[in-house]
Amino acid sequence: MLNRSVAPAHTSSYQIKFPKVKRHTLDSGIPLYILDEGVQPIIKLEIMFPVGGTYYEAKTATSLLALKMLKEGTESFTSSQLSNHLAQYGAFLELNPSFDVSSVSLYCLTKHLGILLPYLAEMIYSPVFPEHELNRIRQIEIQQLKLQNERTNIVASKRFRNLLFGNNHPYGKIISEADLIQQQQDDLRRFHKDHLSTFEIVASGEVSAESIDIINNVFNRTVAHPATHTSNYTDVAANSSSIKEDKAGALQSSIRVGRMTINKTHPDYIPLLITSHVLGGYFGSRLMKNIREDKGFTYGIYSSVVALKHDSYIVIGTDVKKEFVDDTISEIDKELNTLCSFPVAPHELDTVKNHMIGHFQSRLSSAFSLAEKFKNIHIHGLDYSYYDQYLSTVQNITSQDILEMANKYLHPNSQKSVIIG
User: Fold this and answer.
1) Out of 2, 80, 125, 218, which residue is the most buried by the measure of CB atoms under 10 Å away?
2) Do 205 and 308 sit in the same domain of this protein?
């Protein structure tokens, strides 16, 4: 009989096995990545455009509008016909703009895949970008932009990227109303031809042999080769190290502190993730304990590493009342100095390790989240050995390793800051 008065034995083993995608190539040559782990009769089909993000556009906002317009009319169907047909079968279409790899996702019952997939393929292969729909989408995006510009947290994040990368870099550009207005049908058609005609497919959920046959039969056209892209964007650094702007009527000020950092393929990347987690990656982190719980300056503060395909940056972010801005910046610097000066205590390091492993496990609960795990490495040219390395590094990292990472990448003197509000 189980003795409930005795606690279960503690284990520090971080061996985690989870299902992995299987690669299949369609007759057309299109790569299909399959994760057949469905408990429910639901399938998600994601069309990924490897060169469809803003990084590859010649004019600002072309990628965004070209993606949005895919569902606004094709050679065979109007936007109303497309949306009504999806609604009739309880399907959902999701458009995912991105800096690097944009995508379109279809969620539907597996039994309806054969009925719905030709409509999705028509959107991908044969959009017509009708002028009246472009005018409507353009106005919607302009209104969204105006709303975003009223929110200090969104403005601060945009200005922070701009500070790091500069105006001419795709990661640093800020979309304006003028950028949206200048987009014409020919711009979108050209972008579609050059960048959205190359794609890969990820199928997750209940993916049967019949579903694979349907996908193979529908996506039967050979994809185009991606457009040549030679820009290296070497002039990315802005001269200024800080931006501070008052925003009339704002109730809070949004703070962003950070710097450019290493890419996901760098050997220091995972140790840096762990170091960032100590600083502000979970509810019991140092920034949360100090600035939220002790000082009461904010409801929440975080530190994270944003890994883009061609560059990465680390950012500390929070929203505070205007009168707390200077004190909050001082406390952030204090925590960075402490992290750079003293080793992390063993009990704190154990807490961080357990939290990171628990969070990792929580993201393995569904086929869709498992597919996200695949995308996370695939976009960066990595394989599943990355996760083996991740778990091993979390298990074996030492306080001295974290001290080294903090001094290499998180020293207060190397950080830039943006304050809006």
Assistant:
1) 218
2) no
